[in-house]
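Exercise 7b. Backbone tokens:
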């Protein structure tokens, strides 16, 4: 709407409008940048009625009254370490000339020159782990698919970003789609895949439009299709749109959906890397993981690999939301603490009430209390707390939150989103809601406290996938870190 309003004001041919996508500073957006003589300045236009502006001159005068700023000099942006998200907000997301001018597709050319195994070896040496939650070494997964001696292999990009408070996949697809397409093409070449699927959630219609256009542009420029860049490598990408199922974010349920069936979880083994889509070896990664690959075959390899250690290597796009003043995407090192994240980037709670709880890793992630703000956001630190970085979502709550309701929400979420294939998830979550409702009325009930513990143990140990297996995580964390708010001890 803002773009349309400004378009209606502009009549002069000397003014050009570019929709450059989000910078990830959602607390500040939408804002408009004006570039003149190579200098860009911006002004925020949140919740502002522009209908009183009748001419472009009126708009320019109004713009100057808003104290124009340089977005790159705002601490929220300046203090980040943007490698994967370096292009977002900079230019038209579908301008392939801009993408190439910023070293886009150089990494694909490098991969085609050095060969399959060397490409995989560079991904291994980078230390990249999956950014979807499991944190499995990306290069090892690629090696497994490459080593399968079959002629047909597939690549599947999991873009079913269903966790509340997460939007890093969406930001890439809408603001830098060529980085995902290049990353997929490099990965496909490395493992020997000839076809790729992007499994996109239906709630992202704008991402669908950008990806569809970007795929067409890549085809026209011989970065997709047959004999890519005058080699014998052929690769095509097809968009598959989901139907609103959260569990299809689980890789085996996603494969069922891509193949045209109901999204039910498959038993493992076999692993998708050996027997995946249509019974063939399949490399499955999420959007951020694949969009990171081009940086690893460029001069950014060392910059990325020298940040962090163990599983927590490189940068991570954390997504800060909930009761927070400055919400948005922050790409930074893993070992940032919760305190740094919430105070330095988020600027505290939006309500100005005391911080009470922080949930990390999606709706089935653990809750940490306000006295745990020195926790580092590394994969290892959160695993020690029986949690996970997940997709990098961080949701903030002030002291008005009812933690017993948050515990019940975890079970209710499982009731709604379970695929129904396994009994612990399908039935156990319903019983879980009932037990928590009884505990809300009588926190001192030892019988229900023991029953909830037993139920959570059953879900963890016998569910087919992480949907049921992780449902107890937020409940355990509430019991452990928020004494007497669910169970009276």
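Sequence design result:
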């Amino acid at each position: 709407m803002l773009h349309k309003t400004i378009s209606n004001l502009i009549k002069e041919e000397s003014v050009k409008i570019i929709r450059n996508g989000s910078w990830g500073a959602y607390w500040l957006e939408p804002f408009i940048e004006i570039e003149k003589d190579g200098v860009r300045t911006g002004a925020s236009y949140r919740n502002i009625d522009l209908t009183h502006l009748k001419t472009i001159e009126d708009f320019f005068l109004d713009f100057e009254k808003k104290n124009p700023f340089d977005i790159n000099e705002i601490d929220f942006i300046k203090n980040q370490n943007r490698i994967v998200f370096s292009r977002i907000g900079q230019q038209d997301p579908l301008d392939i000339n801009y993408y190439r001018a910023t070293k886009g597709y150089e990494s694909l050319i490098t991969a085609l020159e050095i060969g399959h195994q060397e490409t995989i070896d560079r991904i291994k040496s980078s230390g990249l782990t999956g950014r979807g939650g499991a944190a499995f070494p990306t290069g090892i997964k690629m090696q497994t698919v490459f080593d399968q001696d079959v002629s047909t292999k597939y690549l599947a990009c999991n873009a079913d970003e269903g966790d509340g408070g997460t939007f890093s996949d969406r930001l890439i697809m809408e603001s830098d789609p060529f980085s995902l397409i290049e990353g997929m093409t490099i990965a496909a070449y490395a493992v020997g895949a000839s076809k790729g699927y992007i499994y996109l959630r239906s709630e992202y219609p704008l991402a669908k439009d950008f990806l569809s256009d970007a795929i067409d542009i890549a085809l026209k420029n011989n970065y997709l299709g047959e004999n890519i860049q005058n080699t014998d490598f052929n690769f095509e990408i097809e968009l598959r749109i989901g139907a609103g199922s959260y569990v299809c974010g689980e890789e085996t349920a996603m494969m069922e959906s891509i193949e045209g069936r109901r999204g039910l979880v498959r038993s493992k083994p076999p692993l998708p890397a050996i027997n995946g889509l249509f019974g063939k070896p399949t490399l499955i990664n999420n959007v951020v993981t694949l969009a990171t690959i081009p940086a690893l075959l460029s001069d950014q390899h060392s910059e990325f690999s020298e940040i962090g250690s163990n599983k927590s290597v490189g940068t991570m796009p954390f997504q800060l939301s909930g009761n927070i003043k400055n919400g948005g995407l922050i790409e930074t090192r893993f070992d940032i603490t919760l305190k740094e994240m919430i105070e330095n980037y988020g600027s505290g709670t939006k309500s100005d009430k005391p911080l009470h709880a922080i949930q990390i890793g999606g709706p089935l992630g653990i809750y940490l209390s306000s006295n745990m703000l020195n926790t580092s956001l590394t994969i290892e630190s959160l695993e020690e707390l029986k949690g996970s970085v997940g997709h990098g979502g961080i949701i903030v709550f002030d002291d008005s939150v009812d933690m017993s309701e948050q515990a019940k929400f975890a079970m209710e979420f499982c009731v709604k989103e379970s695929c129904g294939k396994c009994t612990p998830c399908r039935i156990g979550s319903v019983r879980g809601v009932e037990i928590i409702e009884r505990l809300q009325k009588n926190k001192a009930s030892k019988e229900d406290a023991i029953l909830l513990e037993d139920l959570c143990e059953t879900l963890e140990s016998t569910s087919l996938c992480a949907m049921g297996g992780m449902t107890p995580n937020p409940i355990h964390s509430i019991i452990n870190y928020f004494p007497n708010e669910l169970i009276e001890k």
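Instructor comment: The mean pLDDT is 93. The CA atoms of residues 439 and 445 lie 7 Å apart.
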